[in-house]
């Protein structure tokens, strides 16, 4: 697995309050805003922060057990579903617990999740709607399922 992080996702019990704070209060511009589900912001060169409704977060992971750094996933985007599966296999061999094997995702791509030995949850994904321009600008959009 390459040493990189492209999306930091944090669960929140009140997505509307988060939106009010970041968008209305701080003037941040969302990359993508799906009311009732998730809100994305570019936070660094090629890095986005996702604020995910807590109930939707647990549902996406297929679990209610989010021990360790609860409500947080680090996401790693790969060029193909096969590479997602290879990365998940490598993580499991290294000692990770597979929370969700690679599968079609609600966003139209392909993903799976694992928990590392210290409790951090990673999403390994193939999301064709995700791109980083040469200048570092993040582009994210919904894709057909």
Order of helices and strands: EHEEEHEHEEEEE
What is the makeup of the main sheet? 8 strands, mixed
Which percent band covers the strand fraction?
35-45%
Cα radius of gyration in angstroms: 15 Å
The tally of beta strands, per DSSP, is: 10
- Calculate the mean pLDDT score and round it: 89
What gross morphology would you assign? globular
Helix content: 10-25%
- Distance, first to last CA: 26 Å
Strand order in the sheet with the most strands: 2-3-4-1-5-8-7-6
Instruction: Please state the structural category.
Output: alpha+beta
Low-confidence runs: none
Q: Count of DSSP helices?
A: 3
Descriptive notes:
- By secondary structure, the chain is of the alpha+beta class.
- Helices cover 22% and strands 39% of the residues.
- The chain has helices at residues 15-25, 54-61, 81-93, and strands spanning 7-12, 30-34, 38-44, 47-53, 72-77, 97-104, 110-115, 121-126, 130-132, 138-140.
- The strands form two sheets. It has an eight-stranded mixed β-sheet.
- The longest helix is centred in the middle third of the chain and has 13 residues, at 81-93.
Describe how the helices and strands are arranged.
Elements: E1 7-12, H1 15-25, E2 30-34, E3 38-44, E4 47-53, H2 54-61, E5 72-77, H3 81-93, E6 97-104, E7 110-115, E8 121-126, E9 130-132, E10 138-140
Parallel strand pairs: 1-4, 5-8
Antiparallel strand pairs: 1-5, 2-3, 3-4, 6-7, 7-8, 9-10
């Amino acid at each position: 697995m390459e040493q990189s992080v492209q999306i930091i996702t944090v669960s929140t019990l009140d997505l509307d309050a988060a939106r009010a704070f970041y968008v209305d209060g701080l003037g941040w511009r969302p990359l993508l805003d799906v009311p009732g589900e998730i809100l994305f912001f570019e936070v660094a060169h090629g890095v986005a922060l996702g604020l995910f409704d807590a109930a939707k977060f647990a549902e996406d992971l297929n679990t209610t057990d989010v021990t360790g750094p609860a409500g947080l996933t680090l996401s790693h985007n790969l060029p193909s579903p096969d590479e997602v599966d290879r990365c998940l296999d490598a993580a499991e061999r290294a000692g990770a617990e597979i929370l969700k094997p690679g599968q079609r995702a609600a966003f139209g791509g392909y993903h799976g999740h694992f928990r590392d030995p210290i409790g951090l949850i990673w999403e390994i994904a193939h999301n064709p709607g995700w791109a980083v321009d040469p200048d570092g600008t993040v582009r994210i959009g919904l894709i057909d399922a």
